[in-house]
Design goal:
The strands form 2 sheets. A 4-stranded mixed beta sheet has the order 1-4-3-2, covered by helices on one side. A 4-stranded mixed beta sheet has the order 5-8-7-6, covered by helices on one side. Strand 7 and strand 8 form a beta hairpin. The radius of gyration is 15 Å and the shape is globular. The chain is built from 2 helices and 8 strands, in the order βαββββαβββ.
Length: 125
């Protein structure tokens, strides 16, 4: 089993697709109501679905990058504004926080071995 994709709501398809393309994601579907992207590395995809703005989305999507600080610096140079600059978290991940034009919370992070094997990992049975 493998995770296929995550779909985020958007109320501004044009601004939000531009936001993700500018971050380096590869757009593979482009319609007025739906867009889909490939991550530059690996097989993961995510999509956007047009909806009316009704409330904030409490979901968080994470994008991993080994050279997080450099990536964040490159995005800042392009004009991206961060709610949190890269910071070492108590759960052993380094994270930055940014919001897309539709208010979706995105964490850019690097966790290395701790992503799947933190010291508190549940033993396999």
């Amino acid at each position: 089993m493998n995770l296929n994709q995550v779909t985020l709501p958007t109320f501004n398809m044009v601004a939000t697709t531009e936001f993700y393309r500018g971050m380096g994601f590869i757009q593979i579907v482009d319609t007025p109501h739906y867009a889909r992207f490939e991550c530059p590395e690996g097989d993961a995809t995510f999509s956007l679905s047009l909806c009316e703005k009704t409330s904030d989305n409490p979901s968080v999507i994470y994008f991993e990058h080994e050279d997080l600080d450099t990536w964040v610096g490159e995005l800042q140079a392009k004009g991206y504004e961060f709610a949190q600059m890269p910071k070492d978290e108590r759960y052993l991940w380094r994270e930055a926080i940014i919001f897309d034009p539709s208010g979706n919370k995105i964490k850019l992070y690097w966790a290395g071995e701790n992503r799947k094997n933190p010291p508190w990992r549940v033993p396999r049975v």
